[in-house]
Amino acid sequence: MQLSRRSFLKIGAAGAMTLAAGGALYRLAYPPAPQPFGLEGGAQAVLDAIIPVMLGPMLPDDAPTRAATVQAASLRVRDAVRGLPLATQKEVQDLFGLLALGPARRLLAGVAGGWEHADPRQVEAFLQSWRTHSLQTLQIAYHALHDLIIGAWYADPSTWERIGYPGPLKELLA
Question: I need a surface site. Which of 50, 69, 114, 126 has the fewest CB within 10 A?
Fold first, then answer.
């Protein structure tokens, strides 16, 4: 049997459409799993700049210990976000993505040159402006950052001593 050029093209087009339809049905039946929140690139830099400003005097004075404490706090924030519902995780990822994006960082946060080089006074001014901003969206974003960082900080029993908190009542743990 000899195949004409026209028949060959028709069979090829039908095969391509069949494969495309099969791929679409597969994606409908098995959607991709949402990616867990991570501290890649921009999110890590944002947290490394914001955590020392938010926690301020609660952090140790010794530079190496301070850096290790900030890193541990970043990891606790990541773990806290991973415990949130997936839709909320996506919103937090969007917030960090926005803050990591150069033009948005400059426009919304007033931080030029990247978070790695942000002056703590710039970060403090940015946080204060979001906390008291007339746009409720920015206030909500500030409170999300605040609650994530402060909540993750005080969830760790090693931080309780610095504020004089003895821990939960022993009767409640039994």
Answer: 114
